[in-house]
């Protein structure tokens, strides 16, 4: 384990731990969490995504959990984070899109994922980006950055991600909404939500996904759609 500062963050780094997200939670529970902490591991033995799905975590990819102190829960936060991750990947000459709520795709294949969890006065944001390897997952396709970019140093990737997190989490939501809409996968196309086929219209000012089924509009928070 190592401690340092990077891009204004307190960085706690490991070669391998069970889960950066769980370690961040332990810091909160123990009273040792501070705002703008990043827990970074080169590999995880028990990485996880949304709904406690396993996240395959071999060496060569980016696994990091950020700790931020926040005044209250805000559903709009996930859009700022999605844009930050997508912009970071784009800075290496790659062209990502965002699949609601928190997957980053390239050529329709998942390249990164986000896990947002609240703990006391903090939000813990876990981010995994496939750089040198991508898992084989039943049900959807995956890819990795080195298919599209020749050189992606992990520390440089993390530094760019930190700067983009700061930029987009501090941005006015109107600006976030515009950029998210530009990056959104399946905008104005058909998706499946809870068994119904609907058209993805966009997001509203409160951070709800707007879907249209015939003449009926649905506002969706925090669930999943199928493209």
Task: Report on this structure.
The chain is α+β, with helices and mostly antiparallel strands and 227 residues long. It folds into 2 domains: 2-183, BirA Bifunctional Protein, domain 2 (2-Layer Sandwich); 190-220, no CATH class. Helices cover 23% and strands 34% of the residues. It contains 4 helices and 12 strands, in the order E-E-H-E-E-H-E-E-E-E-H-H-E-E-E-E. The chain has helices at 20-29, 77-90, 154-170, 173-183, and strands at 2-6, 9-17, 37-44, 62-69, 97-99, 103-106, 109-119, 122-129, 190-193, 196-203, 209-213, 216-220. The strands form 2 sheets. Strands 1-2-3-4-8-7-6-5 form an 8-stranded mixed β-sheet, sandwiched between helices. Strand 5 (97-99) and strand 6 form a beta hairpin. Helix 2 packs antiparallel against helix 3 (154-170) and helix 2 (77-90) packs across helix 4 (173-183). The chain is globular, with a radius of gyration of 17 Å. The mean pLDDT is 91.
